[in-house]
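Support reply, case 0932

Customer input (verbatim):
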Amino acid sequence: VQLQASGGGLVQTGGSLRLSCAVSGVIFDDYGIGWFRQAPGKGSEGLGWISNDGMTYYIDSVKGRFTISRDDAKNTVYLQMTSLKPEDTAVYYCNTQVRGESYWGQGTQVTVSS
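Our regenerated output:
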């Protein structure tokens, strides 16, 4: 199982970015995918989740600003981020659980300048 996150970069406060997580090695539409981030000097924070049938869940701090979606034809999950804040600066990761094992993408850096 491989996950590859991409789409990070430098953006100004209030800007938007869309991250992608390409998944291979599993029947994609059988699994949910989560997004996490880790800011400098802080622990990992779960941001939200999309189930295999498209149900989504978000933590309060990103609800209304971040949207998770999936394209089963492309084996890809997206994290659309809007109204970005400096405190959103972090390395962003995608994750899935397959038969009790946790798999992570390599992470993509998002930097929000003030």
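We compared this against your earlier run and they match. Two observations from our side: The chain has a mean pLDDT of 96. The first strand starts at residue 2 and ends at 6. Please reopen the case if you see a mismatch on your end.
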